[in-house]
Write a structure and sequence with these properties.
Elements (H helix, E strand, L loop, with lengths): L1 H10 L16 E11 L5 E2 L3 E2 L3 E14 L2 E12 L2 E3 L9 E2 L2 E13 L6 E14 L3 E3 L3 E3 L3 E14 L8 E12 L4 E12 L1
Antiparallel strand pairs: 1-4, 1-14, 2-3, 3-6, 4-5, 5-8, 6-7, 7-10, 8-9, 9-12, 10-11, 12-13, 13-14
Length: 198
């Protein structure tokens, strides 16, 4: 999975939807992007785990044009964090927290300027997120499963797309703020990205 992610990062970096190309209503496009997610607020879970402030991000989905300047989108996103830090000692031992992941599935709207060259866009979406905190590993060979939870998710973002409006492949640059919220835990990720749509 890490090797696949590295290849995708070289070829296509980004994590934002865009429905450019054809301006007619009903046009449907697909996209596959990857990039870097930042966590401006430290991610704490169950009061005992702190995740790294950066993560690898992948996104795929489809966008359907509803009007010349509005698209409806369906997005799937994947985030992978490195090893976390345990904030508590267990029987006098501080365990290693393995890699953690987060998945989201959301639907939303995209509002964009219809022009060639550099054109701004805004995105807003909502759906569901699933966070899987890495397992706790002790020496020698003891493992305790990490926390798992599913909760509502929402995202807002902005960026610019580039190139000719008649092109079927166009790059974009942007960022969005993603929030997965439960009654006890909050996951905040800020992907800052570029990408391509086909």
């Amino acid at each position: 999975m890490r090797r696949l992610g590295a290849v995708l990062c070289v070829l296509i970096v980004g994590a934002l939807t865009h429905c450019d190309g054809v301006h007619a209503s009903g046009a449907t496009l697909a996209y596959l992007n990857c990039g870097l997610g930042l966590s401006p607020v430290p991610q704490h879970y169950n009061g005992s785990v702190r995740l790294p402030s950066t993560s690898f991000a992948m996104q795929g989905g489809i966008a359907r044009r509803l009007s010349p300047s509005v698209c409806g989108s369906l997005d799937l996103e994947y985030f992978r964090f490195g090893e976390g830090a345990s904030m508590d000692a267990w029987a006098g031992t501080i365990p290693v927290v393995e890699s953690s992941t987060a998945l989201t599935a959301m639907v939303g709207l995209r509002f964009e300027a219809k022009k060639d060259g550099v054109a701004p866009f805004l995105v807003s979406s909502a759906g569901v997120g699933h966070v899987m905190v890495g397992d706790f590993k002790f020496e020698p060979g003891r493992t305790i499963p990490g926390a798992r939870f599913t909760a509502p998710a929402f995202a807002i973002g902005a960026g610019v797309r580039m190139g000719s409006s008649t092109s079927r492949v166009r790059p974009s640059v942007g960022m969005h703020w993603l929030n997965v919220l439960t009654s006890d835990e909050v996951t905040n990720i800020l992907p800052i990205v570029i990408g391509l749509t086909f």
